[in-house]
Amino acid sequence: MSLSLILSYFEMINWHTIAFYIISIFLISSAVYVVLTGNIVRSVIALIFTFLMTAGIYFLLQAEFIAVVQMLIYAGAISVLIVFSVMLITDRDKNINETSPFSHNLFFGSIASGLFYLAVSITVHNTSWNVTLKNKEFTDISLIARGFLTENVIAFELAAVLLLVALAAAIFIIKEVKDDN
Amino acid sequence: MEFLDNIFLYGTSIIRSIITWIGFDPAITNMIMAAVYTVAILVICTLVALFYVLYERKLAGFIQYRPGPNKLGPFGLFQTVADAVKLLTKEDIVPRNADKALHFLAPLFVFIPPILALGAIPFGNKLVAVDLNIGMLYILAVTSLSTIPFFLAGWSSNNKYTMLGAMRAVSQKISYEIPVIFSVLAITMIAGSLNMSEVVGMQGKLWFVFVQPLSFLIFFIAGIAETNRAPFDLPEGESELTAGYLTEYSGMKWALFFLAEYCSMFVFSAMATTLFLGGWLGPVLPGWMWFVLKVHVLMTVIIWIRWTFPRIRVDKLLEFNWKILIPASILNIFATGIGVYLFNNFF
Q1: Cα–Cα distance between B135 and B112 in angstroms, integer?
Q2: Do residues B176 and B169 touch, judged by C-beta distance below 8 A?
Q3: Which of A68, B33, B270, B288 lies at a 20 to 30 A Cα distance from A86?
Q4: Domain regions of chain A by residue span
């Protein structure tokens, strides 16, 4: 085979699709591993990997801002919360698939997840998506910021109030425990 | 001078033209170039770690009025090489009840955040691997992942000291992330952009450190805590926790943690340089040389602090963050908001 033939073979491949499938395989297999593994820390690590692969999909769609926010909030912050609660578990060698009260309902669980899958796929297929080649709304974050502070200001402020309430409640609960001691 | 300023850009364009000359199509050329950038960043990381290990030991010697490593080679320059050989040949000990896979992976994971972050840092004019529009946010997102390897190292070793070290590392890093993000937010408000190169470009007349001195101070203190350096190196805390999360690591795995610490220090100094000290801007010398000089000054200050201040207590550490740094950074954001409003409307 000559070099030019190999090169022309390379040109036929759609690299974007290949990247999508590689990321998807990692994404789905790590998500399955989260559920199947008995070790809670490995489960957390696989979950973080799943978050990162999801961010990879967003990067592939050129939605940089959403990808970075996915990394910052899910992989960076939410996972650390889970890690915190994992560290409080004293018996580290227990299989969570045996101790968890939810892992015995295989039948109902599969029905529920099947229904969820059905609902999501029906929604995805019946939505008319706005396909744009220049997805400026995703990359230009000043547009997102303007949206937060003009059109969707009430939802934005409500979310802020909700977070404040959660913060105050957490501090209140901690204080109660201290007083009992 | 023009040539020296763009020497690395010429290098990459030569590589690119060679690849195109062979006959690859643009998609593959871009992929190969990405690989070239990655290798360049890996080389930078390695060189930085090798240089600053020796530099810290020399500086510590100077501060403590002793020569430091001076036996191997001229001025002890080959000490790091000898140490590397020693560490590579050491026996790799893994505790019997450790989670062996995670114990192996933790020292590898610890290198990922600094390497990913270096990809978005401009080392000079246009000298950046990926010039993201949201570069600042990207670097913050990537460095927020650096908590995970320390937790993994501590947990997988199955030892109470490593576990305590991991708990400290996680609580310290997640708390000190907040002032880092808030101080960067103040810069974003002034610059109106999250692009690292644009932020540097705006500092032509005045470095942001003079506009935002409090923000710089908060960023610097929180950054030292984020990189686990003294006086905030409690996760290691050898006087109470043997060596914290590092207790069960030996040989090259331990060395990887050690080297990654210098890499993340470098990333943090590079961020501070870009955001506050005008990045590559400066007279006479080529841009990348100014960048390296500024980073070097910051690294020297971090090392100087380590050999000057004693370690603080863990409850003081968290109190200092939540009661001083975070309120100060929030006040700073308010003041910056008012300042930006006044500047835009009345000047």
Answers
A1: 17
A2: no
A3: A68
A4: 13-94, 142-181
From B47, B61, B46, B45, select the one nearest B304 (Cα to Cα).
B61
Average pLDDT, chain B: 84
Please name which of A136, A160, A134, A165 lies closest in space to residue A149, comparing C-alpha atoms.
Answer: A160
User: Which tokens in the block code for residue A11?
Assistant: 């040109």
Chain A residues near residue B144 by CB distance under 8 angstroms: 71-72, 75-77
User: Cβ–Cβ of B133/A64 closer than 8 Å?
Assistant: yes
Contact yes or no for B167 and A87 at CB 8 A: yes
Q: What is the dihedral of CA A112, A115, A121, A124, to 10 degrees?
A: -90
ipTM metric: 0.80
Domain regions of chain B by residue span: 96-346
* pLDDT tens, position by position, B265-319: 999 999 998 888 887 887 877 778 888 888 999 999 998 988 888 888 888 888 8
Cβ pairs A/B, distance under 8 A: 84
* Model pLDDT for residues B203-258, shown as the tens digit of each residue: 878 888 888 888 899 999 998 888 888 788 777 767 777 777 788 787 788 888 88
Q: B102 and A45: CB-CB below 8 Å?
A: yes
- pTM here? 0.84
Q: How far is CA B72 from CA B57, B62, B63, B69, B88, in A?
A: 14, 18, 21, 8, 18
Cα separation, B237 vs B244, whole angstroms:
6
Choosing among 3.30.1240.10, 1.20.120.1200, 1.25.40.10, 1.10.1760.20, the CATH entry for A13-94 is 1.20.120.1200
